[in-house]
Fold this sequence. Notes:
- By secondary structure, this protein is α+β, with helices and mostly antiparallel strands.
- The protein contains eleven helices and 17 strands.
- The chain has helices spanning 39-48, 67-76, 94-105, 125-131, 145-181, 187-203, 253-277, 285-299, 375-378, 385-395, 402-409, and strands at 30-35, 53-54, 57-64, 80-86, 112-117, 136-139, 210-212, 215-222, 230-236, 241-249, 305-313, 318-324, 331-333, 338-340, 359-362, 367-372, 421-428.
- A six-stranded mixed beta sheet has the order 2-3-1-4-5-6, sandwiched between helices. Strands 7-8-17-16-13-14 form a six-stranded antiparallel beta sheet, with no helix packed on it.
Amino acid sequence: MADSLNFQLEEELEFSSADDEFDMNSSSVWKILIADDDEGVHSVTELVFNSFSFDNRPIQFINTYSGKETLEVLQKEEDIAVILLDVVMETDDAGLRVVEQIRKELKNNMVRIILRTGQPGQAPEEQVLIDYDINDYKNKSELTSRKLKSSVITSLRSYISILKINELNTTLERKVAERTAELAASLEIIEKDEEAGKKIQFKLLPEDNMEIGGITFSREIFPSLYLSGDFVDYFRINERFIGFYIADVSGHGASSAFITVYLKSMISGFIGSYNHNNVELILKPDELLNVINQTLIKEDLGKYLTIFYGLIDLEKNELHYSTGGQFPFPVLLDRKSKDFIRFKGPPVGLLRIARYKKEILKLPRDFSLIFMSDGILELLKDKTLKEQESQLLKILTYESTVTSLIENIGIDSTRFLPDDITILNVRRTASE
């Protein structure tokens, strides 16, 4: 069933890639499939992207006009990056059926799917986003060329991230196979390969001692193996808000490290959605954790994580945060006092019914927020939880740095660690 697409053609925008080093060698073009039974939709869409390129690659369009034809093309073309998929074609729900078959029968979780409809009443947006594994949902009557380009760019960035995750996964799986065949003779080589994997993962970390809006972020991660299940990130969202998080994935090693890459990809996608489409999920800690929780459960990756996601409101001098089981509790210190920020929240990716709350905390003029992953408790394992908390408060001071904490707690990176250990210090010294 045909429905019209009336773009408000706007002045051409110049977009540049945020990932200049992307060179997956998969193709010299981005393949985008237009699946719509209206020939006019194909023509207008191609007109919008005339002379468009992203990351120095042009777009190659593939055209289909029914759900059946779309699936036939997808079985042959495995490197399609994005599908612009109409909901209503040969049937009222043809597009939705195609989504199901792509994800479940073709097992294609890489292609990014943007649903488009001229009849939003046929498939309400909120329910479709919950029930189907899609990446965006657009009403054709409200879709401008700017919005379409932004949605496609966000989808291409997500596609690149997935390619990188798959590349890392493939590389590590290949190295594990080689280790099985030549274990005794290749121990030194394997250690070098794992060290390379560590370097790849650590390149995703933000710069240490980074100042954003007068706030200094310092961090250190000590993996128990070569690859870590702990991760931190911090970033400027806009002039008012700074975002940051500390996460600890269940388990250790490569499988947990994959989830940290996946988590960063998801949150980077939320930032892109805010920048390009003004979707404010990145500014809503509770809703953000709800989405990550449902995504991890839906993907069934066999992993869950604990996480503290925070926003620093520079305008109101407040900390907005939600937590998903992060422990030990972070410590807030100023020049006169110190105490744990105690809160409740279930781990993320473990319970489908889990719900998360947003808390708001007024920040002192000068403050230091110190976060530690639960690996720190392994170094204090002979003490009760109450004694461990008391010992941590004695060690921590307003002047504490990540380096001094490492020395005072006794972390020795040259020795075996039973668990990954991460320290994040968020600090402002406004009076200096």
